[in-house]
C-alpha cells in the first residue's frame, strides 16, 4: 500500500534534473546555516534558551496573551480575538469593509494560508495582492507554496519568465532573475501605492511592550504598511514571547537558521498606529490552545517557522513540498498536520527516515522526529496502519519469540540474495518497494560472536565516512 | 469579548505544568576585538557598504561622490544640505515616490550582523523603504557587539510608535535562489560612520 506522500513523490522525482536541483539547492541552504551557526560560539546555548523561553511562555500563555493585548490597546491598537479560521476571516473582512477597501497588499503569512483568507476575501470582491516575490509568483500561477520560507522553490526561472511575459509584459524569452525581479519591483510598487489596506503576519509578538515584529528581506511588509491607512496583523497565539530581551535570542537564531544570513534585512517593530492610521491585531487560536494540553506533542508550539527542518530533511529535499498533504510540508508540517487531523493527514508520517537531522537543526529544540515516531505508533489505533506491513510485523514478532526458529531462518536468509528478483520485489514486500534490500551476509552476528570475530575496539567505525543524511 | 474569554479559559484549562523563564542575562554574546572593523566587514557581507568619515571630510561631498546620479534626495537631517525633499513636511507619503536617495539617521549599529536601529525619526517612514538607495548616518561610538546589547539599548521615539533594524539592501532569492539586490526597498545601502 502506497501513501499519498509516496505517490506524489513519484511524480516529483520523475523529473530527475528538477529533483537533483531541488535537493542540492536546499542542501546549500543547510550548509549556509551551518557556517553561520558554527561562527556563533554560544549557538547551542541560544537554542536552549530559545526552547526554555518558549516553554515558559506557552505554560503561562493566558497571562502573556492578556498582557500583550492590554499593552497593545494602551498603545492605540485595536485588538481582535479569533477562535478559528472562520472568525479570523470574518474579522479581517469586517475591518476591510468598514474602510471600503478595494485592494489589499499582503506580506507572507502562513497563518492566513492556514485560514484560507485569500480565497475568502477574493470571494467578497477584494483584490488581494501577495507582495513577497515568491508568493506573487505562485499567486499568479494559482498554486500553494511548496516551502514556508521559499514558497516558489520548485519553480524554474524559465517558468517565471513565461509567467511574467503573460502577466507583466516582460520581454519574450528573458528569464534573467535580476531582470524579472526588477519587473516585479515595478509592478508591486504600483500595487503598494494604490492599495487601501496592508496586511502582515507576525514573527514575534512582545507581551511586555505590545509590539509585533515582522522580519523580511524584501521589505514588502514595510512597503505594504507605509502607504495605506489600515494595517492588519494576523498573529498566531504561539508567536507571543515575554519581552525584548527574549527577542534578542530569537533574532539571532531566526535568519541564521532559515537562510544562513546573520539577520534578515528588515526587522520591523510596530508599536502604535501611525499618524491618521489604524493598526489592528487579530490574535488567532485555531486549535493552538488545545495543543497546549497535548503532552506528547505540545512542543510543536515552540516552532519559529524558520524551515531549517525542511532544508535538512532528506525526504523533503528529494520529494518536494507538494508530496505532503498538509499545507506546511517537511518535519514540522507532518506534526502540525497530525495535530490538525490525524485521520486526514496520516499519510505524511511515513515521509521520514527518522534520521533526526531536523531535531539537530531546530533553533527551538522541537523534538520533531520523536513526535513523528510517536504518531507512527498511533497509526494502528487510528486505522491507518499499512495492512501488509502489519502482517509482516506479526510474522516477525512470532519469529523473534522463537530463538531456535529465528536462528535457523537467519542461517538460510542469504539464499534471498540468489532468489529471482520477482520473488523478492513484488507487491507482497512493502519494504522492497522503491528501495533495494541490503545483501544478507553469510554469517549472522551471533555466528561471528561465537567464532570470536567480533572485536571490542570499535576501530572499524572510524573508517565510516561522514555522509549527509 | 466572548472569543477572548473562551480562548484564555481554554489555555488555562490546558496548561498542565509550568516552566520558569530562564535567565537570559547570563548569556554572554559574541564580542569582537574591533567592533567598528567587524561592523564594516559584515555590512559588506550582507551586500551593503560602510564608510568611515574622515576628519574634516564633508558628508555632503562624500554622498555626492558615492551617488553622483541621485537627483531627488530626501532627508530631514540638519547637516544634509543636498536634500531636495523633506519627509517631515510631506503630508502624503505617496509623494515620496521617485526618491533616488534617502539619507537617514541610525542610532545603534550591531557588529554581529550589520543591523542598524532606526527608531522612526521622520514623519513619513516610507522614506526608509521607497528610496532607490539609502544612506544611514551612524555615530561610530554607538556600535555594540551583538543583538542582546542592542535590545538593552534601543529606544522608540516618543512621537512615533515604529522602529526597525536595517541590515544591508533589500534582497530576494525567490527566483531559483539567485540573489538579487533591490526587491522592493533600497537597491543599495551605505552606512556612513561619523
Task: Please outline the helices and strands.
The complex is a heterodimer of chains A (469) and B (194).
Chain A: H1 4-13, H2 16-38, H3 43-58, H4 61-74, E1 78-82, H5 85-98, E2 103-106, H6 110-114, H7 117-123, E3 127-130, H8 133-141, H9 157-168, H10 177-194, E4 197-200, E5 204-206, E6 212-216, H11 220-226, E7 230-236, E8 240-241, H12 244-259, E9 266-270, E10 278-284, H13 288-292, H14 308-312, H15 314-319, H16 330-340, H17 342-345, H18 357-361, H19 368-378, H20 387-400, H21 403-412, H22 421-424, H23 445-450
Chain B: H1 2-14, H2 35-45, E1 49-52, H3 59-66, E2 73-75, E3 101-105, E4 108-110, E5 116-119, H4 127-130, E6 133-138, E7 143-144, H5 147-153, E8 162-166, E9 171-172, E10 180-181, E11 188-193
Brief summary:
The complex is a heterodimer of chains A (469) and B (194). Helices cover 49% and strands 10% of the residues of chain A. With 469 residues, chain A is of the alpha/beta class.
Features:
heterodimer, A: 469 residues, alpha/beta, Rossmann fold, 6-stranded parallel beta sheet, 4-stranded mixed beta sheet, 23 helices, 10 strands, 10% strand, B: 194 residues, 5-stranded parallel beta sheet, 11 strands, 22% helix
Q: How is this structure best described in words?
A:
The complex is a heterodimer of chains A (469) and B (194). With 469 residues, chain A is an alpha/beta fold. With 194 residues, chain B is α/β, with parallel strands linked by helices. In chain B, strand 9 and strand 10 form a beta hairpin. The longest helix of chain B is centred in the N-terminal third of the chain and has 13 residues. The model of chain B has no long low-confidence stretch (mean pLDDT 97).
Amino acid at each position: 500500500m502506497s501513501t499519498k506522500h509516496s505517490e506524489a513523490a513519484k511524480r516529483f522525482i520523475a523529473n530527475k534534473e528538477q529533483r537533483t536541483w531541488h535537493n542540492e539547492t536546499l542542501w546549500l541552504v543547510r550548509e549556509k546555516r551551518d557556517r553561520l551557526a558554527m561562527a556563533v560560539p554560544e549557538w547551542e546555548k541560544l537554542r536552549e534558551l530559545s526552547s526554555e523561553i518558549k516553554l515558559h511562555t506557552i505554560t503561562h500563555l493566558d497571562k502573556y496573551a492578556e498582557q500583550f493585548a492590554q499593552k497593545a490597546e494602551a498603545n492605540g491598537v485595536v485588538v481582535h480575538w479569533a477562535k478559528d479560521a472562520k472568525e479570523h476571516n470574518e474579522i479581517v473582512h469586517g475591518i476591510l469593509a468598514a474602510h471600503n477597501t478595494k485592494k489589499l497588499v499582503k506580506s507572507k503569512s502562513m497563518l492566513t494560508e492556514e485560514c484560507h483568507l485569500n480565497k475568502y476575501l477574493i470571494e467578497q470582491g477584494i483584490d488581494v495582492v501577495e507582495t513577497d516575490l515568491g508568493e506573487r509568483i505562485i499567486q499568479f500561477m494559482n498554486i500553494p507554496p511548496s516551502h514556508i520560507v521559499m514558497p516558489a522553490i520548485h519553480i524554474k526561472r524559465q517558468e517565471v519568465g513565461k509567467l511574467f511575459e503573460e502577466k507583466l509584459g516582460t520581454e519574450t524569452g528573458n528569464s534573467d532573475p535580476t531582470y524579472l525581479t526588477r519587473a516585479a519591483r515595478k509592478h508591486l510598487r504600483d500595487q503598494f501605492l494604490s492599495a487601501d489596506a496592508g496586511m502582515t503576519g507576525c514573527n514575534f509578538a512582545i507581551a511586555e511592550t505590545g509590539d509585533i515584529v515582522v522580519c523580511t528581506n524584501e521589505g514588502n511588509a514595510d512597503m505594504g504598511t507605509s502607504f495605506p491607512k489600515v494595517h492588519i496583523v494576523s498573529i498566531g497565539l504561539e508567536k507571543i514571547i515575554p519581552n525584548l530581551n527574549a527577542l534578542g535570542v530569537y533574532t539571532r537564531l531566526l535568519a541564521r537558521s532559515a537562510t544562513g544570513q546573520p539577520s534578515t534585512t528588515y526587522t520591523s517593530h510596530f508599536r502604535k498606529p501611525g499618524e491618521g492610521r489604524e493598526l489592528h491585531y487579530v490574535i488567532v487560536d485555531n486549535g493552538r490552545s488545545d495543543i497546549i494540553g497535548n503532552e506528547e506533542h505540545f512542543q510543536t508550539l515552540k516552532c519559529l517557522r524558520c524551515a531549517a527542518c525542511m532544508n535538512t530533511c532528506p525526504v523533503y529535499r528529494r520529494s518536494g513540498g507538494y508530496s505532503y498533504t498538509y499545507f506546511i510540508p517537511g518535519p514540522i508540517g507532518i506534526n502540525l498536520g497530525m495535530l490538525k487531523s490525524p485521520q486526514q493527514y496520516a499519510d505524511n508520517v511515513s515521509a521520514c527516515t527518522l534520521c533526526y537531522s531536523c531535531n539537530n537543526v531546530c533553533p527551538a529544540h522541537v523534538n520533531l522526529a520523536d513526535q513523528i515516531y510517536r504518531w507512527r505508533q498511533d497509526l494502528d489505533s487510528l486505522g491507518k496502519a499499512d495492512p501488509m506491513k502489519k502482517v509482516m510485523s506479526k510474522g516477525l514478532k512470532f519469529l523473534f519469540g522463537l530463538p531456535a526458529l529465528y536462528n535457523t531462518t537467519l542461517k538460510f536468509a542469504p539464499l534471498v540474495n540468489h532468489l529471482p528478483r520477482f520473488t523478492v520485489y513484488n507487491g507482497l514486500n512493502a519494504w522492497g518497494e522503491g528501495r533495494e534490500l541490503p545483501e544478507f551476509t553469510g554469517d549472522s552476528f551471533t555466528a561471528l560472536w561465537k567464532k570470536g570475530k567480533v572485536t571490542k575496539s570499535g576501530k572499524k567505525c572510524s573508517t565510516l565516512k561522514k555522509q549527509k543524511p | 469579548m466572548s472569543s477572548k474569554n473562551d480562548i484564555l479559559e481554554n489555555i488555562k484549562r490546558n496548561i498542565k505544568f509550568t516552566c520558569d523563564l530562564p535567565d537570559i542575562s547570563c548569556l554572554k554574546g559574541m564580542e569582537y576585538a574591533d567592533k567598528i572593523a567587524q561592523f564594516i566587514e559584515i555590512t559588506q557581507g550582507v551586500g551593503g557598504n560602510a564608510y568611515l568619515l574622515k576628519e574634516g571630510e564633508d558628508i555632503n561631498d562624500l554622498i555626492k561622490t558615492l551617488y553622483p546620479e541621485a537627483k531627488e534626495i530626501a532627508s530631514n537631517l540638519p547637516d544634509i544640505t543636498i536634500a531636495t525633499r523633506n519627509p517631515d513636511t510631506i503630508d502624503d507619503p505617496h509623494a515620496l515616490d521617485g526618491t533616488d536617495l534617502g539619507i537617514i539617521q541610525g542610532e545603534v549599529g550591531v557588529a554581529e550582523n550589520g543591523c542598524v536601529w532606526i527608531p522612526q525619526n521622520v514623519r513619513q517612514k516610507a522614506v526608509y523603504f521607497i528610496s532607490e538607495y539609502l544612506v544611514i548616518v551612524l555615530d561610530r561610538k554607538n556600535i555594540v557587539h551583538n543583538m542582546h546589547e542592542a535590545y538593552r539599548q534601543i529606544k522608540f521615539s516618543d512621537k512615533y510608535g515604529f522602529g526597525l533594524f536595517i541590515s544591508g539592501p533589500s534582497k530576494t532569492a525567490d527566483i531559483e535562489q539567485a540573489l538579487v539586490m533591490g526587491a522592493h526597498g533600497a537597491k543599495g545601502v551605505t552606512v556612513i560612520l561619523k
